[in-house]
TrEMBL record:
It comes from Arion vulgaris. It is found in: Endoplasmic reticulum membrane. GO terms for molecular function: peptidase activity. The chain crosses the membrane at residues 49-71, 77-98. This is Signal peptidase complex subunit 2. Belongs to the SPCS2 family.
Amino acid sequence: ATSNIHEKPVIVDKWDSGALKNALDDGAKKVLVDINGYSESNALIDGRLLICTIAVGLALFAVLFDFFYPFPQSRNVLMTCALLYFILMGVLTVYLTYMEKGIFLVALEQDRAKMEPDNKWMLSSSLRKYDETYHLTMHFIDGKTNEERTACVSKRVDNYFDENGIFCFDQYLPIIEKLRRDLSDEKKKA
C-alpha cells in the first residue's frame, strides 16, 4: 500500500502548536501505515470508546428512567447513575494517562510468512505550548520475544515547516525512516 509522497501540501498556522503537532503526527502515521504498509490497530482507542459508551449509556438510562418514573421515584437511580458516571470519568482519566500515554498510533507489522506474531510499533509525541521542540518517541515490541525497544527524536518544528507553514514531508520522512530502521536493525542484531 504505497502512497504518493507528492500529494497536496499540508499548510498550518506555524504559531498554532496543536496544528503543528497534528501535522507532524499525521506525517509519522503516513510513513508507517501508508508507505511501509503496516496495519493500524485501533484497540487502544476502542478501550476509550468502550468507557465513554458505558458512561453515555448510564446517562441515557438515567434520563429514560426519570422520564417513566418522575423525580421522587427515580431519585436513587439518578444518584447511582450520576455517581457511576463520575467514577467512569475517573477511570477514563486514568486510562488516558497510564494506558494511552500520548500514543497516537499503534501499527502492526505482519510477519511475511505469517508464522510469527505481529510486531507492534507505537508512536507517541509531545509539543508543549510556546515550545518549538517536537518530541517523537517510537516504541517497538517484538511479536516473537515481547522485547521492547524505544527510539526518540527531538527537533525544532522549523526543521519540518517552511516560513509559510507548509509541511516539508520530504525532510520529515528520512527522520521517521531512520528511527524505524534503527529499531529494526536492533531486532536483526539480537
